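Deviations from the work plan: none for this task. Representative record:
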Amino acid sequence: MFLAVISLIIIASGGVISLSLQPERKYLALLLTAIPAALFIIFVCAAPLFTGQTIESVINMGFPFGDVRFKIDSISAFFIVLTALIYPLAVLFASDYLKEYNSGSFPLTSHWFLFPFFIISMIMVFAIQNIMAFLFVWEMMSLLSMLLLFFEHTRKDVTDATVNYLTTMHVGVVFLISGFMFIFHITGSYDFAVISGSIVNSKYSTLIFLVLSAGFAIKAGWFPFHSWLPVAHPAAPSHVSGLMSGLMIKTGIYGIIRTIEFTGTGEMSHALIICSITVITIFYSVLNGMTCSNIKKTLAFSSIENSAIIGLGVGVAMVGISSGSTLGAYLGFSGALIHLATHAVNKSALFFSSGIIHMKYNSLEMEDSGGLSKKMPLFSKLFLFFSLSISGMPFFSGFIGKFLIFISLVIVASKVEFGMSVVMIAISAALAFSSSVGAILYMKINSFIFFGNLPEKELHSEHETNKAMISLIVLAAVSFVCGVFPWFLFKFVQFPAFSFLNSVMIIPKINFLFPLSLLSVVFATLFLVILFFRKRFSNNFKDRSASTWGCGYRKNIPRAKYTPWSFSDPFSTLFKKITVSIENCDMPAVLFPQKGSFATSSDDAVNKNGIMPLINSMKKFLNLFIWIQSADGRKYILYIIVFLFITLFWNMRV
Amino acid sequence: MKITYMFVNIAVIMFFPFIMTGLVNKTKAFWGGRKGASVFQIFYDVLRLMKKGRVISTSTGWVFNVAPVVSLAAVLCSAAVVPMTGGIQMAGFHGDFVFFMYLLGISRFMMVVMAMDTSSSFEGMGASREASFSTFAEPAFFIFAGTFALISGKLSFGEIIVHMPRGEGWTEIIIFVAVVLVFLIMLAETCRVPIDDPCTHLELTMIHEVMILDSSGPDLAIFTYQNSLKMLIWSSIISAFLFPSTNFLIADFSLLITTYVAVSLITGTLESVVARFRMNTVPQFLFIMITLGLVILSVAVFFSKGGL
């Protein structure tokens, strides 16, 4: 525990030291403290993660927290290690990304200063096991991420997104506070260790489960609470959105896992609620992601999808526990955690990449970009690697988690009764459908940003991206190792899964880890053999180059390229009940040609039909009281006097 | 024993795809009242294309060069987990059907990206359609594979076809429906009529063909072989579900070949008598596959769990 505290102090010191440095050197303070701190943290968490021991200490923090239990068990350790791994890479990326903001009125000092504290707050969320202290650090995490998000404060969409984010997070906190206070009311204790035993079979467990899960689901981005993600991500700086999507939404998953531990891991009704919500989320998010043309918005929808896939794994594990299929439960939960880890790595990398794209095109719209693979071949290869990985293609890391969830669905289906097993197989089909739509999402991003002709406008090539590329390469290496050697990942999730199942079991031999590695060698060999033969046979002739076939048109201009909108059109017309497309047509009304315009964009149905009307009606109601704030000093003094009189009379009443 | 089967499988993967496509073309010629090209014509075509040089579009980058190779490697790899002669897989493991379907996904991913790299609107349209339509085959396949994994209690293709219940009334029915389903998935995945027409010559109506419009020489050879190979792979699944292993190499091999020939003849006949669907009715056809899958699932689970 001592080492853990030391490493948090080291992380914090990075932020403090950065205050005294020049803007372009601030990253050094963070990076040089982040790397040793990450190593310390991984060293500390190794014992809980690989042996299942817990590190625990209780400190009396006084009012209002009381005795605060700090506890790193295997599940916490898993999340903390992930955070420690990605933090230094995010700093390395940010050092390049924030360079273009050095000139201008951006709050660089506070941004660099707050960044380490955001990480600390996340680590604390995973380590604290006391209701009051947990809510405190949870709120700190929301506020710090809000401040980091509010970086480009001059942009209108950034301020809007920040307000939206802040509001949504606080709706979540309302759920959490009411849920936790209800727990306190029942158990009379703030301590997680006391709580988890005492409400499992109480009659309120379902109510507590619903309220707390709703609170955490807002963070995790599950339907219908996902609407902050597609708004916040395009507004945030790329390293912040990388961390928000890679790590922060995982705190929601962490909270849901803890909630399930409190209210019983084997509750079939809770499991079904989680499964159905996540399946709806997966469907909804991929179909909406298809229609977006903003890169970060698309990535945000993909984050929602993946967060829900993780939740589905947890839900299947719960069904497994309640139906007595321990193997299914084990595979489901470890699949969820593996997917969580690989998603954290790949999605942070993709968000970092979107930052590089923004640096090059100064735009996040797919329509403005294209052909980047000709200018930055290595970057485009890395992006394709991460895309294949996150779409769950075999031999890449994202496959393992989805694969395990599929297997556990089939195993669990064989243990439950008729109706449930039909549901389980249907869920696996739904997952297959949505993950193949998810793959199309990445086909689309890759196609429109990296491939095809270069756009007509100039690229900004003056920005250095070397350090950002290093962080991408490190993430790619991690992702590659995870994909090719799945047993390596299994080492990490074994004890967390045991702790969730509440039993140590001897895992029956599951015969797929070795074949997967072997087949990846086969795949690589086949690739090389085909490459060799293709070269061998056709070396009599040299490759000639010519323009793309355009049905007679000789010149292939960038403007003739297929647009992202038309690419996703077959889907958006088929599912037009779910997706919202907005067409702005400005037709010239007169006979003679004048300028007209036509623009298409997409919106989130929940945002459009649910959240926005709510906010608008709230605004309308609050506007009724706008006369109170008159900006008139005399009136304010009057308020004070009136208020003083009221309190005076109130006291005299007694 | 198993080694012999594997060598037979490798030989089948290498040579039979050409013959299958050749047979489909021959059948179409027969119904059209023509003599038709030799059954081995596709093989000659591929050989000829392999020796040619390539014409590469000026719009393309590295992915145009790499994509055909990755795509074929993925499809060949997926052939390794499919049960062929006597239901023997070359590499079977738990959950290989998930692996199989996602490998076809890699192939599709690379082809779409390659088509978009040429920066042609035609190819963009083809890529968009291919990507959209193939998503419906995937859930159907997962329902199918999941159902049989469920009723056999096994997790790999090879074990499923050995251990699945046969010989009762309901098993015969679901095997029949499953074979129809796999046949329909095959039509969708290999871009055959009624979803796509490999012989069409108008760019706007193509799906698969338009994606490889700019591929030439060895790349085109790779795609021709790959598409035929996909057909062979799906037909092998049909064969594995129809005919349990007899443990005689000759008998197993001839059963497999019979299935291939039958599938080719049926496909050819279908292409001669059915017109392709209009683009907007294709999704409806694809939903039929999911419905068939759900029928198999409910019947199988109902009987294997002993009713409600």
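Residues 326-361 of chain A form the longest helix (36 residues).
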